[in-house]
Amino acid sequence: MSELVSMPSPGRIPDRDIDKSPILETHHLGIKFGGLVAVDEFNVMIGRTEIAGLIGPNGAGKTTVFNLLTNVYTPTSGTILLDGKDTKGLKTYQINKRGIARTFQNIRLFGQLSVLDNVLIGLHNSIHCSLTSAMLRLPAYWKSEKVARERALELLSIFDMQDLANNEAGSLPYGAQRRLEIVRALATNPSLLLLDEPAAGMNPSETSELMENIRKIRDMFQIAVLLIEHDMNLVMGICEGIIVLNYGRIIAKGPPEEIKTNPTVIEAYLGRKKEG
């Protein structure tokens, strides 16, 4: 695991990414819903191959941050720079094309389609075929279909799911559906993968396997991963940098060894001890 190196505000990135520009920077990012401030002064920097965690108590604003990063929500204030470029005004699908893919707390697969078809849908950004070729089923169409199927099976093999390609996605066990959602996100060829509680519903063995697969994804694709997770063993075991959110504001940032001993973080999770 790489050490974090101090950078100009807003943070630190792994030393192996020090010679590259960050994949993500946010400056004074915030959003209000009516009079409620849901996220405020969210300032982070994510290195190009960093595995980072976003943690905090329930209701802290973690998924709201993901919705801001993908422009599901329009920020009330602040700036999001993806690969150095402002994402203001972009649609969610344009953010995906720019390089951010995500999974969700609640699985959003096409349950009645096959496992393979779910991944093929994710590959839409990389299929190069004209509308005429597709309508007339010209050789260029069949060639692009063949390439896409081969790529989809290759991605499924990351999680040893290639033999399930023709199964109905909705019939898979819960843990396998979680893995399929990650594969579909990878199919969009992201530079930054956002995972919203990827270990939810998984047993300890599946969680351990997930940790190894996240590392493998980072190393294989040379991308950054930002994950929301309540399983602290996973977070502390895999994340290089951790951002702690409480009531919509960052209360701590740093490597796992700093975060797990931070009194402000401990208080946010466990509450203040009563005196006397």
Structural description of this entry:
With 276 residues, the chain is α/β, with parallel strands linked by helices. The protein contains ten helices and twelve strands. It has helices spanning 62-69, 92-98, 115-122, 131-136, 139-157, 174-186, 204-221, 232-238, 256-259, 263-270, and strands spanning 4-6, 12-14, 24-33, 36-46, 51-55, 77-82, 85-86, 100-102, 192-196, 224-228, 241-246, 249-254. The strands form three sheets. A six-stranded mixed β-sheet has the order 8-9-10-5-11-12, sandwiched between helices. Helix 7 links the parallel strand 9 (192-196) and strand 10. The protein starts with a strand and ends in a 6-residue tail after the last helix. The model has no long low-confidence stretch (mean pLDDT 88).
List the helices and strands and how they pair.
Blueprint (H helix, E strand, L loop, with lengths): L3 E3 L5 E3 L9 E10 L2 E11 L4 E5 L6 H8 L7 E6 L2 E2 L5 H7 L1 E3 L12 H8 L8 H6 L2 H19 L16 H13 L5 E5 L7 H18 L2 E5 L3 H7 L2 E6 L2 E6 L1 H4 L3 H8 L6
Parallel strand pairs: 5-10, 5-11, 8-9, 9-10
Antiparallel strand pairs: 1-2, 3-4, 3-6, 6-7, 11-12
Structural class label = alpha/beta
Q: Under CATH, the topology of the largest domain is which?
A: Rossmann fold
Distance between the termini: 43 Å
Given the C-alpha coordinates, what overall shape results? globular
- CATH architecture descriptor name of the largest domain: 3-Layer(aba) Sandwich
Order of helices and strands: EEEEEHEEHEHHHHEHEHEEHH
